Amino acid sequence: MTDQTTRRFARPLVAVAALLGLLAGAAAVYVRETRSGNGAGGETAAADCAAAQATVGRITPLLKGQVAAMAPQMPRPLPPLSFTNAEGKPQDLSAFAGKTLLVNLWATWCVPCREEMPALDALQRDMGDDRFQVLAVNIDMGGDEKPKAFLDEIGVKALALNRDASMGVFNTLKKEGLAFGLPATFLVDPKGCLLSAMNGPAAWDSPDAKALIAAVKGI
């Protein structure tokens, strides 16, 4: 076998090995998260997220069309994510317990975010209620003035201005292998378990996106 032939067959094998490594890493993270926590609280969170695997199975066929880039995840609790709400008060995901969340990280300097934000705003306007919320978190450094002007400029009305000027939320999710760039979006169930994730924009006001959210709200 020539060196050229060997290289041709070696490349796919390397790619497969890399994919298997990523899957193994995801499984390891899941095991670590489900075994972490102290006492009954940690065990309960693990059990809740193990049960969410059935939800992932139900919604996976809906991850298509305009939301095809959303990748199903092995359900696990998201790490603590802290930010300030529209009133400037500290908040984290525990404040939204009982709601399905579409967590979106964005910044004013992110061109795809500018394109995506009106669709997220429309999704919140059309489907937001006591069971579902689009939780958009701005990660610009500095004060609130620039993000506020940004939202006013593009006509966002339904989304609250949640902020993390330290970029801690992004860096935490990056360490988990979930955030690589902006926008980054995560579907989280009412018990705080991650269901699916994507990096990049989507048409969140599309029928595909609304069918996905409707399905999760109905579970």
TrEMBL record:
GO terms for MF: disulfide oxidoreductase activity
GO-annotated biological processes: cytochrome complex assembly
Domain Thioredoxin: from-to ranges: 72-218
Pfam family, one: Redoxin
GO cellular component entries: cell envelope
Keyword 4Fe-4S belongs to the record: no
Name of the protein in its database record: Sodium:dicarboxylate symporter
Species per Swiss-Prot/TrEMBL record: Xaviernesmea oryzae
